[in-house]
Amino acid sequence: MAVLELINISKHFGAIQAVNDVSFAIEPGQVVGLMGDNGAGKSTLVKMIAGNFRQSEGTMRMDGAELIMHKPIDARQHGIEIVYQDLALCDNLSAAANVFLGRELRRGFGPIRILDYANMYKRAGQIFAELKSETRPRDLVKQMSGGQRQAVAIARTRLSEAKIVLMDEPTAAISVRQVAEVLNLIRNLRDQGIAVILISHRMPDVFDVADRVIVMRRGRKVADKSIGATSPEEVTGLITGAIEQLA
C-alpha cells in the first residue's frame, strides 16, 4: 500500500493557479525526485504535503486513510517531516540540542524539571549511527560542514518515527564530498523503509539516488517515470518544455 497518495491536488492563490490537478503515490522506502524549473509548483506541492498550505481541490491519503491537515504539526503527527533548504538550525547549539530543539527531553518531578542532556546526547548519537554519519552529538553546528548540517536536520526527522521525509534542495551549495555524504543519508532513510521526496535541480543527484522522477511544469505534472525508463536529456526536455508531456 502507498504510504502517501495525492489525488487531483490543486492549489490557487486568488487568480494564480500554483498547482493544477496533480496525482501520484509513493510507497514506503521509495525515493522520488521532484524536478521542475522555478515556478513549476514544486515547493507549493511539498508545502501542502507538509501542512503549510491546505489544497484548494483534491484529496490526500496516508496509509489508505484521508489526510486532513490544518498546520505543520498535523503533518508531523502523521509521520510527515520536512527538511527545508535553509535547514533552520541554531549555529550556537550542539548537534544534539538542534536535533531535540522544541522537543527537549526533561527529567525531574512536578514543577522542577531540568533538561536531560545525557539522554539527548545518547539518543542523538544513536540516530547519527543509524544514519552512518560521522556527526558527533556534542559538536557545535557553527563548526560543521554542509553535509554534517544536513545530517543534523535529517536526524531531527527520526525523533518522530517519520514515514515520509520531504527534502528541499539538500545538495545545493555544498562540496562534491558533502554531496556524496547527503546522498548516503537519503539511502539510509530509504533502507529503513522511509519514503523520501527529493526536490532538486541537480540532475546527477536525482539519477543517483531516486527510484522515480516526477517532473512539473507550470503547476502541472508532465511526467512520472522510473529512473531506468528515462534519461537526463528527456527530463531536461520536459523541464524546459522542449518535450511537452509524457503519458
TrEMBL record:
Keyword Ribonucleoprotein among record annotations: no
Family annotation (Gene3D superfamilies): P-loop containing nucleotide triphosphate hydrolases (3.40.50.300)
Keywords of this entry: ATP-binding, Nucleotide-binding
Keyword Heme carried by entry: no
Taxonomy, superkingdom: Bacteria
MF annotations from Gene Ontology: ATP binding; ATP hydrolysis activity
InterPro entries assigned to the protein according to its UniProt record, in alphabetical order: AAA+_ATPase, ABC_carbohydrate_import_ATPase, ABC_transporter-like_ATP-bd, P-loop_NTPase
Domain ABC transporter: 4-243
Entries under SUPFAM superfamilies matching the protein: P-loop containing nucleoside triphosphate hydrolases
PANTHER family in the cross-refs: CARBOHYDRATE TRANSPORT ATP-BINDING PROTEIN MG119-RELATED, SUGAR ABC TRANSPORTER ATP-BINDING PROTEIN
Protein name per the record: Sugar ABC transporter ATP-binding protein
Organism: Phyllobacterium pellucidum
